[in-house]
Design brief:
Helix content is 83%, strand content 0%.
Length: 142
């Protein structure tokens, strides 16, 4: 399987999970995927395989400077591994946000942009959620 094929499969794997998080966060199937972290675990396994391939090929991973990171991301397998890393961790953050919302009870219309923002822009969606969360908690104590 080529890295391009794995890239497409990984992208297709996460989209249904994000749709469930945004539109059906309380559904028992969604809860199962959140509770057992099924998709992030699958992505993590694939990530570990690509990291092992890179290391066994003699490619060290130097994260010591921006130049070395830029050089690392000129290698197809390294870019794929980086992408899998983003997918897995962004999804974990989205799952955490949904879990947090079980007690916060932020309206789904407000949660949707937070989750979509995390899907598309990672930390930006997380930041928006944290702002919404702090406003919600502040209003709850007033």
């Amino acid at each position: 399987m080529t890295p391009s094929e794995v890239f497409k499969i990984a992208n297709m794997l996460i989209l249904p999970m994000w749709i469930l998080l945004i539109f059906l966060p309380r559904w028992k199937v969604t809860r199962f995927f959140i509770d057992y972290k099924v998709v992030p675990i699958i992505l993590s396994v694939i990530y570990a395989i690509y990291i092992a391939i890179a290391l066994s090929a003699g490619g060290g991973m130097d994260f010591g400077s921006l130049q070395s990171v830029m050089q690392l991301f000129t290698v197809e397998n390294a870019v794929l591994a980086g992408w899998l890393h983003y997918l897995a961790f962004d999804l974990l953050v989205g799952m955490w946000m949904v879990n947090q919302n079980k007690s916060l009870k932020i309206h789904p219309v407000i949660m949707a942009p937070c989750l979509a923002g995390t899907l598309m822009l990672g930390p930006v969606g997380f930041l928006v959620f944290m702002i919404v969360k702090s406003i919600k908690l502040k209003n709850a104590t007033v």
